[in-house]
Amino acid sequence: MKFSSKVLLILTLALSFTMLSGSYATAQEKMSMDEYNAQLKDWQTREANAKKAVEECASSVAALKTELAGITAETEKIWGEILKMIGTDQASVDAYRNMLKALDSQADGLLALSPEELFKRSDEVAALEAKLAEAKKNKISVLTEMQNLIASIEGKITQIKNKMPKAMYDNYTVVVGDYLWKIAGKKDIYANPYQWMRIYSYNKEQIKDPDLIYPKQVFKIHRECGPDEYLVAKGDYLKKIASNPKVFGDPTKWTKLYEKNKAIIGGDPTRLYPYTVLVIPR
Protein backbone atom coordinates (compact mmCIF):
# COMPACT_ATOMS: atom_id res chain seq x y z
CA MET A 1 0.00 0.00 0.00
CA LYS A 2 2.75 2.33 0.91
CA PHE A 3 4.58 1.44 -2.27
CA SER A 4 1.56 2.31 -4.43
CA SER A 5 1.20 5.70 -2.73
CA LYS A 6 4.84 6.53 -3.53
CA VAL A 7 4.42 5.56 -7.18
CA LEU A 8 1.34 7.70 -7.44
CA LEU A 9 3.18 10.64 -5.93
CA ILE A 10 6.04 10.29 -8.38
CA LEU A 11 3.67 10.14 -11.36
CA THR A 12 1.84 13.20 -10.14
CA LEU A 13 5.10 15.18 -9.81
CA ALA A 14 6.29 14.06 -13.25
CA LEU A 15 3.03 15.18 -14.85
CA SER A 16 3.21 18.55 -13.13
CA PHE A 17 6.77 19.07 -14.33
CA THR A 18 5.81 18.22 -17.91
CA MET A 19 2.97 20.73 -17.87
CA LEU A 20 5.20 23.45 -16.41
CA SER A 21 7.89 22.79 -19.05
CA GLY A 22 5.36 23.08 -21.86
CA SER A 23 4.08 26.37 -20.54
CA TYR A 24 7.63 27.72 -20.25
CA ALA A 25 8.51 26.68 -23.82
CA THR A 26 5.37 28.36 -25.13
CA ALA A 27 6.32 31.57 -23.28
CA GLN A 28 9.81 31.43 -24.72
CA GLU A 29 8.49 30.91 -28.23
CA LYS A 30 6.06 33.79 -27.87
CA MET A 31 8.82 36.16 -26.60
CA SER A 32 11.17 35.27 -29.49
CA MET A 33 8.42 36.04 -32.03
CA ASP A 34 7.83 39.43 -30.43
CA GLU A 35 11.52 40.22 -30.60
CA TYR A 36 11.64 39.11 -34.24
CA ASN A 37 8.72 41.35 -35.16
CA ALA A 38 10.39 44.26 -33.36
CA GLN A 39 13.65 43.70 -35.23
CA LEU A 40 11.81 43.33 -38.53
CA LYS A 41 10.05 46.62 -37.98
CA ASP A 42 13.43 48.23 -37.15
CA TRP A 43 14.98 46.84 -40.35
CA GLN A 44 12.07 48.01 -42.42
CA THR A 45 12.47 51.50 -40.96
CA ARG A 46 16.17 51.48 -41.71
CA GLU A 47 15.55 50.31 -45.26
CA ALA A 48 13.06 53.10 -45.82
CA ASN A 49 15.52 55.66 -44.44
CA ALA A 50 18.31 54.26 -46.64
CA LYS A 51 16.14 54.47 -49.75
CA LYS A 52 15.26 58.03 -48.88
CA ALA A 53 18.96 58.89 -48.40
CA VAL A 54 19.82 57.29 -51.78
CA GLU A 55 17.13 59.34 -53.47
CA GLU A 56 18.43 62.52 -51.84
CA CYS A 57 22.01 61.61 -52.85
CA ALA A 58 20.94 60.94 -56.44
CA SER A 59 19.20 64.30 -56.48
CA SER A 60 22.39 66.00 -55.19
CA VAL A 61 24.52 64.21 -57.80
CA ALA A 62 22.19 65.33 -60.57
CA ALA A 63 22.38 68.92 -59.30
CA LEU A 64 26.20 68.74 -59.16
CA LYS A 65 26.35 67.35 -62.70
CA THR A 66 24.23 70.23 -63.93
CA GLU A 67 26.46 72.71 -62.09
CA LEU A 68 29.62 71.03 -63.47
CA ALA A 69 28.24 71.15 -67.00
CA GLY A 70 27.67 74.87 -66.57
CA ILE A 71 31.19 75.43 -65.26
CA THR A 72 32.65 73.35 -68.11
CA ALA A 73 30.72 75.34 -70.69
CA GLU A 74 31.87 78.62 -69.12
CA THR A 75 35.48 77.39 -68.99
CA GLU A 76 35.39 76.38 -72.65
CA LYS A 77 33.96 79.76 -73.53
CA ILE A 78 36.73 81.59 -71.65
CA TRP A 79 39.39 79.27 -73.14
CA GLY A 80 38.05 79.99 -76.62
CA GLU A 81 38.29 83.73 -75.94
CA ILE A 82 41.90 83.32 -74.76
CA LEU A 83 42.86 81.38 -77.90
CA LYS A 84 41.15 84.01 -80.05
CA MET A 85 42.99 86.75 -78.18
CA ILE A 86 46.42 85.24 -78.97
CA GLY A 87 45.37 84.36 -82.51
CA THR A 88 45.48 80.57 -82.41
CA ASP A 89 43.29 77.48 -82.09
CA GLN A 90 43.21 74.27 -80.06
CA ALA A 91 44.97 72.21 -82.73
CA SER A 92 47.89 74.66 -82.78
CA VAL A 93 48.10 74.61 -78.98
CA ASP A 94 48.20 70.80 -78.98
CA ALA A 95 50.94 70.80 -81.64
CA TYR A 96 52.96 73.39 -79.71
CA ARG A 97 52.63 71.36 -76.51
CA ASN A 98 53.84 68.21 -78.27
CA MET A 99 56.80 70.11 -79.72
CA LEU A 100 57.84 71.34 -76.25
CA LYS A 101 57.46 67.84 -74.82
CA ALA A 102 59.76 66.54 -77.57
CA LEU A 103 62.37 69.17 -76.65
CA ASP A 104 61.97 68.22 -72.99
CA SER A 105 62.59 64.55 -73.83
CA GLN A 106 65.66 65.53 -75.88
CA ALA A 107 66.99 67.49 -72.91
CA ASP A 108 66.48 64.43 -70.68
CA GLY A 109 68.44 62.31 -73.14
CA LEU A 110 71.36 64.73 -73.25
CA LEU A 111 71.36 65.12 -69.48
CA ALA A 112 71.81 61.35 -69.12
CA LEU A 113 75.09 61.43 -71.12
CA SER A 114 78.55 61.52 -69.58
CA PRO A 115 80.45 64.84 -69.62
CA GLU A 116 82.73 63.50 -72.36
CA GLU A 117 79.81 62.49 -74.58
CA LEU A 118 78.12 65.83 -73.95
CA PHE A 119 81.25 67.63 -75.05
CA LYS A 120 81.28 65.70 -78.33
CA ARG A 121 77.61 66.49 -78.89
CA SER A 122 77.81 70.18 -78.00
CA ASP A 123 76.26 70.98 -81.41
CA GLU A 124 73.08 69.16 -80.32
CA VAL A 125 72.98 71.20 -77.13
CA ALA A 126 73.33 74.42 -79.12
CA ALA A 127 70.60 73.27 -81.55
CA LEU A 128 68.27 72.44 -78.65
CA GLU A 129 68.82 75.87 -77.15
CA ALA A 130 68.18 77.52 -80.52
CA LYS A 131 64.92 75.57 -81.02
CA LEU A 132 63.70 76.60 -77.58
CA ALA A 133 64.58 80.25 -78.24
CA GLU A 134 62.59 80.08 -81.47
CA ALA A 135 59.66 78.40 -79.71
CA LYS A 136 59.52 81.19 -77.14
CA LYS A 137 58.74 83.67 -79.92
CA ASN A 138 55.40 81.94 -80.51
CA LYS A 139 52.42 83.67 -78.85
CA ILE A 140 51.25 80.31 -77.51
CA SER A 141 54.23 80.41 -75.15
CA VAL A 142 52.38 82.94 -72.94
CA LEU A 143 50.00 80.22 -71.74
CA THR A 144 50.77 79.10 -68.18
CA GLU A 145 51.13 75.43 -69.14
CA MET A 146 53.66 76.31 -71.84
CA GLN A 147 55.55 78.66 -69.52
CA ASN A 148 55.99 75.78 -67.08
CA LEU A 149 57.23 73.45 -69.83
CA ILE A 150 59.65 76.07 -71.13
CA ALA A 151 60.98 76.69 -67.61
CA SER A 152 61.55 72.94 -67.21
CA ILE A 153 63.51 72.72 -70.47
CA GLU A 154 65.57 75.82 -69.64
CA GLY A 155 66.46 74.34 -66.27
CA LYS A 156 67.64 71.12 -67.90
CA ILE A 157 69.70 73.03 -70.49
CA THR A 158 71.40 74.88 -67.64
CA GLN A 159 72.21 71.55 -65.97
CA ILE A 160 73.59 70.22 -69.27
CA LYS A 161 75.85 73.24 -69.72
CA ASN A 162 77.13 72.97 -66.17
CA LYS A 163 77.83 69.27 -66.68
CA MET A 164 79.57 69.72 -70.04
CA PRO A 165 83.32 70.45 -69.78
CA LYS A 166 84.61 73.63 -71.41
CA ALA A 167 87.42 71.72 -73.09
CA MET A 168 88.75 68.20 -73.55
CA TYR A 169 92.40 67.62 -72.78
CA ASP A 170 94.87 65.21 -71.20
CA ASN A 171 97.82 66.13 -69.00
CA TYR A 172 101.45 65.52 -69.91
CA THR A 173 104.42 65.95 -67.57
CA VAL A 174 107.61 67.11 -69.25
CA VAL A 175 110.66 64.88 -68.76
CA VAL A 176 114.36 65.57 -69.31
CA GLY A 177 115.17 65.77 -73.01
CA ASP A 178 111.65 66.81 -74.09
CA TYR A 179 110.88 69.62 -76.52
CA LEU A 180 107.57 70.53 -78.14
CA TRP A 181 108.33 68.94 -81.52
CA LYS A 182 109.30 65.69 -79.81
CA ILE A 183 106.26 65.65 -77.49
CA ALA A 184 103.83 66.28 -80.37
CA GLY A 185 105.39 63.40 -82.31
CA LYS A 186 104.75 60.83 -79.56
CA LYS A 187 102.15 58.20 -80.45
CA ASP A 188 100.02 58.84 -77.37
CA ILE A 189 100.05 62.60 -78.00
CA TYR A 190 99.44 63.52 -81.67
CA ALA A 191 101.87 61.23 -83.53
CA ASN A 192 102.61 64.31 -85.60
CA PRO A 193 105.52 66.63 -84.64
CA TYR A 194 104.03 69.45 -86.74
CA GLN A 195 101.28 69.79 -84.15
CA TRP A 196 103.76 71.27 -81.65
CA MET A 197 101.95 74.58 -82.19
CA ARG A 198 98.82 73.02 -80.71
CA ILE A 199 100.67 72.37 -77.44
CA TYR A 200 102.30 75.77 -77.45
CA SER A 201 99.12 77.79 -78.11
CA TYR A 202 97.08 75.77 -75.62
CA ASN A 203 99.64 76.28 -72.84
CA LYS A 204 100.68 79.83 -73.64
CA GLU A 205 100.20 80.90 -70.01
CA GLN A 206 103.19 78.77 -68.95
CA ILE A 207 105.24 78.55 -72.16
CA LYS A 208 106.77 81.96 -72.77
CA ASP A 209 109.30 80.67 -75.31
CA PRO A 210 108.48 77.51 -77.35
CA ASP A 211 112.18 76.63 -77.33
CA LEU A 212 112.34 76.68 -73.52
CA ILE A 213 110.36 74.10 -71.59
CA TYR A 214 111.35 72.47 -68.30
CA PRO A 215 111.10 69.03 -66.69
CA LYS A 216 108.07 68.53 -64.42
CA GLN A 217 106.04 71.16 -66.23
CA VAL A 218 102.51 69.84 -66.78
CA PHE A 219 101.02 70.68 -70.18
CA LYS A 220 97.41 70.31 -71.28
CA ILE A 221 97.20 68.15 -74.41
CA HIS A 222 94.28 69.52 -76.40
CA ARG A 223 91.93 66.78 -77.70
CA GLU A 224 88.69 68.38 -78.82
CA CYS A 225 87.64 71.96 -79.46
CA GLY A 226 85.16 73.42 -77.04
CA PRO A 227 82.37 75.80 -78.10
CA ASP A 228 84.73 78.79 -77.66
CA GLU A 229 87.76 77.28 -79.41
CA TYR A 230 88.93 76.90 -82.99
CA LEU A 231 91.77 74.72 -84.30
CA VAL A 232 93.50 76.39 -87.25
CA ALA A 233 93.72 74.21 -90.37
CA LYS A 234 95.98 74.58 -93.42
CA GLY A 235 94.69 77.35 -95.66
CA ASP A 236 92.92 79.20 -92.84
CA TYR A 237 93.15 82.94 -92.32
CA LEU A 238 91.35 85.18 -89.86
CA LYS A 239 88.63 86.45 -92.21
CA LYS A 240 87.86 82.91 -93.31
CA ILE A 241 87.68 81.70 -89.72
CA ALA A 242 85.49 84.64 -88.66
CA SER A 243 83.04 83.84 -91.48
CA ASN A 244 82.56 80.28 -90.17
CA PRO A 245 78.97 79.96 -88.79
CA LYS A 246 80.34 78.29 -85.65
CA VAL A 247 82.60 81.27 -85.01
CA PHE A 248 80.92 84.60 -85.96
CA GLY A 249 79.44 83.96 -89.39
CA ASP A 250 80.81 87.38 -90.31
CA PRO A 251 84.26 87.90 -91.95
CA THR A 252 84.38 91.54 -90.84
CA LYS A 253 84.77 90.39 -87.22
CA TRP A 254 88.22 88.94 -87.83
CA THR A 255 89.71 91.77 -85.78
CA LYS A 256 87.93 90.45 -82.67
CA LEU A 257 89.67 87.12 -83.20
CA TYR A 258 92.99 88.81 -83.68
CA GLU A 259 92.75 91.00 -80.58
CA LYS A 260 91.76 88.03 -78.42
CA ASN A 261 94.63 85.87 -79.72
CA LYS A 262 97.26 88.53 -80.45
CA ALA A 263 99.65 87.10 -77.86
CA ILE A 264 99.87 83.80 -79.77
CA ILE A 265 99.46 85.12 -83.34
CA GLY A 266 102.00 87.90 -82.98
CA GLY A 267 102.23 91.32 -84.64
CA ASP A 268 101.25 90.13 -88.11
CA PRO A 269 97.57 89.03 -88.37
CA THR A 270 98.21 87.44 -91.77
CA ARG A 271 100.72 85.01 -90.31
CA LEU A 272 98.70 82.12 -88.91
CA TYR A 273 100.16 78.68 -88.21
CA PRO A 274 98.20 75.44 -88.65
CA TYR A 275 97.26 73.64 -85.41
CA THR A 276 97.07 76.89 -83.46
CA VAL A 277 94.25 76.77 -80.91
CA LEU A 278 92.38 80.09 -81.05
CA VAL A 279 90.00 81.38 -78.40
CA ILE A 280 86.70 82.70 -79.79
CA PRO A 281 85.51 85.80 -77.90
CA ARG A 282 81.75 85.66 -77.32
| Computed CA radius of gyration, to the nearest angstrom | 46 Å
Give the DSSP E fraction (strand runs of 2 or more residues). 5-15%
Distance between the termini: 141 Å
Structural category is mainly alpha
Write the CATH architecture name of one domain.
Roll
Helix percentage: 55-70%
CATH superfamily annotation of one domain = LysM domain
Strand order of the largest sheet: 1-2
Low-confidence stretches: 6-11, 13-21, 23-27
Mean pLDDT: 86
Number of strands: 4
Please report the first level of CATH classification, the CATH class of one domain: Alpha Beta
Reading the helices and strands in chain order gives HHHHHEHHEEHHHE
Q: Describe it for me?
A:
The protein is mainly α and 282 residues long. 62% of the residues lie in helices and 7% in strands. The protein has helices at residues 2-85, 90-111, 115-120, 122-135, 144-163, 180-185, 196-202, 238-243, 254-260, 262-265; strands at residues 168-173, 218-224, 229-231, 277-279. The strands form 2 sheets. Strands 1-2 form a two-stranded antiparallel ribbon. A two-stranded antiparallel sheet has the order 3-4. Helix 2 packs antiparallel against helix 4 (122-135), helix 2 (90-111) runs parallel beside helix 5 and helix 4 runs antiparallel to helix 5. The longest helix is centred in the first third of the chain and has 84 residues, at 2-85.
